[in-house]
Amino acid sequence: MTRIAPQDLRAKIMSAEDAAAMIHSGDTVGMSGFTGSGYPKAVPMALAARIEAEHAAGRPFRVRVWTGASTGPELDGALAKADGIEFRLPYNSDPIAREKINRGEMDYFDMHLSQVAPMAWQGFLGPLNTAVVEVTGIRPDGMLIPSSSVGNNKTWLDRAEKVIIEVNRWQNPALEGMHDIYYGTRLPPDRVPIPLTRPDDRIGEPCLRCDPDKIVAIVETDAPDRNLPFSPPDQTARAIAGHLLEFFGHEVARGRLPASLLPIQSGVGNIANAVLTGLVDSPFEGMTAFTEVIQDGMLDLLDSGKLRMASATSFSLSPEAAARVNADMARYRDRMILRPQEISNHPD
User: Fold this and answer.
1) In this structure, what DSSP letter does residue 77 have?
2) pLDDT tens-digit series, residues 108-151
3) Residue 301 is part of which domain span?
4) Is 78 inside a domain boundary?
5) Has 251 been annotated as catalytic?
6) Which of 74, 134, 166, 292 does the annotation list as catalytic?
7) Are residues 212 and 250 in the same domain?
8) Is the dihedral of CA 175, 176, 177, 181 positive or negative?
């Protein structure tokens, strides 16, 4: 059963190959995705195949790619392998792309993730020809239900000349209602303060807006997000977690931290995940998190009841944890909030 409610938009359903044909050499393409979650899976693969065919025929074909952060092998990996990326921002972890960047074969701009959207809006990055964004579904009113990451999707949809949507049936429809899309970060003089003071504040809308006239193609998919599993905590990671827990306990005892601590911000990777896992056995209750991604350790904290609310821009879960969340999304929906990365990663 289709997740595209508007009849007029159903007329735009097509294959990934036909959608990729609307992207031209030299185009700047803004794609969804943040740490292997919520990135388009079909159109980039079709585009990579088209680029390889053009190269085989002796014709140049490369595009400029903007995303939220790192993505998955079907996007960065496929396009880099096809030598189809001329320029990449703002973050990359794909090994093929990394080698090309280090050899000077791919231009790269590594920038603070919260600054991508403002710089795009202010025109510093140039025009955006096409947005390719994965969503969970399209509501009867035309609003787009985000998937497992928000990243820069709001900005890509607003700035792009044309939009290609991937509707991924693998994403649980119970994701609807988890997101908080804030539209107050417009250009001056229309920009207003960000009225966010607690991780569980909701200041925006649950869905993404998109001018339906800009949507040129919709591709239906059914493919999982791709993230690597976390390594089990080793002796070093456990020691780091122990030192941090000891510090928290000391600060609570001295009255400098509340018993629920202050909102937690964690990095990405095995050590940060080990620290979060260590908090499961801590005495701290009613904790909150305002951070970049929700990892396995944060999921364990939510399940234990120690963590009350987690705010981020994306999931960054192991395959096992991703399947666990996706199968039980309705239970997690009211305890997590996914926001645009210009909010989740804001330096303030």
Assistant:
1) I
2) 999 999 999 999 999 999 999 999 999 999 999 999 999 999 99
3) 235-317
4) yes
5) no
6) 292
7) no
8) positive
